[in-house]
Amino acid sequence: MERTGWKGLCLSLFDYKTEKYVVAKNKKVGLLYRLLQWVFLIKKGYQDVDTSLQSAVVTKVKGVAFTNTSALGARLWDVADYVIPSQGENVFFVVTNMIVTPNQRQQTCAEREDIPDGMCSEDSDCHPGEAVIAGHGVKTGRCLRAGNSARGTCEIFAWCPLETKSGPQEPFLKEAEDFTIFIKNFIRFPKFNFSNNVMDIKNKSFLKSCHFGPESLYCPIFRLGSVIRWAGSNFHEMAPEGGVIGIRIEWNCDLDKAASECNPHYSFSRLDNKLAKSVSSGYNFRFARYYRDQAGVEFRTLMKAYGIRFDVMVNGKGAFFCDLVLIYLIKKSGFYRDKKYEEVRSAEEEEEPGLGLSEQPASGPGLQKQPEQHKAQQGSGIRKGNGYVCPKRLEPSRPLPEHLHVFGLQQEP
User: Fold this and answer.
1) Disulphide bridges in this chain (predicted)?
2) Is 331 labelled a binding residue?
3) Which of 173, 186, 275, 303 has the fewest CB atoms within 10 Å, i.e. the most exposed one?
């Protein structure tokens, strides 16, 4: 018995379960059903929907820029210099402006005057070994005053000289406006085992020359300055202090159609608060490049990078009509359709020979023969609504729900 139970359980794993419907031959109910069906057809409510989109994003930026400054001299900038991280992900940063502090070495120098915790009047204000709060180094115990000034700043052990306070107001990398962003996006709807990607373009030469725009809505290559403009900003206003741009990719696919009809739709928005003028506005961070001189002493070039962070966000849903295949398209569709639908006819049609429920036998295998008086009670009924015959012994003991009364299915006393 136990073996039989396990065998039945294992075999049940290969069953396909679908709902069974009873077809009621009733004009009022049928009219209501067709009205609702029309609404669902317009809204595509007949489709099964998968919202568990799986996605992977790979980005590549291309472009070069040339600068000539006193801190760095003549220099060419390529992707390895201005894109962070270099491997390209759904979040990446493009440098547009920079404050460069070259030749920093670990030694002593005066803390900057705009750091409150670094201010002092005498040496006792600078406790040795104490880090300057929001400063650049560790106090040595000396208070450095210029001339006869009553107040000065603490001497610190730090990377000296300290970072330059102010930077250029014009974008350091002006050419960044014409850089291009290539977004490769792979998606999959696991429920329907459907995959697609933005690279599914048969004409490869198209990718070498296209730019996303009104005439090329499915080109995955974007001009950086255009993306900022579509997000409602201006490159020359945004580049000096940086900001955050969101690139949203929507995959809303009707999988009843050909796979080539499943295409991404792009939208752009600025995510940082551009209207708030605060010390935290924009987007920047610091990084350094380290070297050693001929004596083996380490020094570095500190860079405070301002730029534009891009966040690529992917959303979508796929819809597919499943039961259409089972009931209409496969070879044995008639067999499955008969099992799925059972017809129940109204009283008028029951009177026709060979139709309806009136032809059911009063007795048979598994049925007890009923007395004549009992049969008479079954035969007598009350005609209601749209021709339904409701036998007295089967009248409901509770009232019908209110929403059925609206459509004329009232229960008579």
Assistant:
1) 109-160, 120-143, 126-154, 210-219, 253-262
2) no
3) 275
